[in-house]
């Protein structure tokens, strides 16, 4: 089947794409991506389509992300409204439990869309931890 016809059919489903763009000489990263999808986010196949794309043949979408083939591999989500770049290096992210799952959860929760328009969510202030033996006593306030 022609890849463009296949993509058109997937697009008609209306499900966002989680796309790994890789260099055609790189077979390890796509294998790692497929493995991570199977063990961590296979349950998401009803809500997103997982794709592996030759980053040289599909350089045009990379251009829209401000990336080029020299930046490969790149992991992104195409929601059909926006494209969101995975916020970690692909190899680190695919070798760390939970990061791919969190990226997809952030899509579903609206966080990726919100941060696309308004910048990163503010981080809560750090909570100061005081050890029990360092806590002030009532007598130390005199």
From TrEMBL:
Where is this chain compositionally biased, Basic and acidic residues type? 129-142
- Give the UniProt record's GO annotations in the biological process aspect: protein folding
Renumbered to this chain, region (Disordered) spans 116-142
Named from the GO MF annotations, one term is: protein disulfide isomerase activity
Protein known as:
Endoplasmic reticulum resident protein 44-like
Q: Would you tell me the Gene Ontology cellular component terms?
A: endoplasmic reticulum membrane; endoplasmic reticulum-Golgi intermediate compartment
Q: Which organism is it from?
A: Plakobranchus ocellatus
């Amino acid at each position: 089947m022609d890849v463009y016809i296949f993509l058109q059919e997937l697009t008609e489903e209306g499900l966002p794409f989680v796309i790994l763009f890789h260099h055609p000489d790189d077979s390890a990263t796509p294998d790692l991506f497929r493995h991570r999808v199977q063990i961590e986010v296979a349950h998401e196949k009803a809500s997103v389509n997982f794709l592996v794309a030759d980053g040289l043949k599909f350089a045009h979408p990379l251009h829209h992300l401000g990336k080029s083939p020299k930046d490969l591999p790149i992991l992104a989500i195409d929601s059909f409204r926006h494209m969101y770049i995975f916020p970690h290096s692909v190899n680190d992210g695919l070798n760390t439990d939970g990061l791919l799952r969190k990226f997809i959860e952030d899509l579903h929760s609206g966080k990726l869309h919100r941060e696309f328009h308004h910048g990163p969510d503010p981080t809560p202030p750090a909570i100061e931890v005081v050890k029990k033996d360092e806590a002030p006593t009532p007598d130390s306030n005199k």
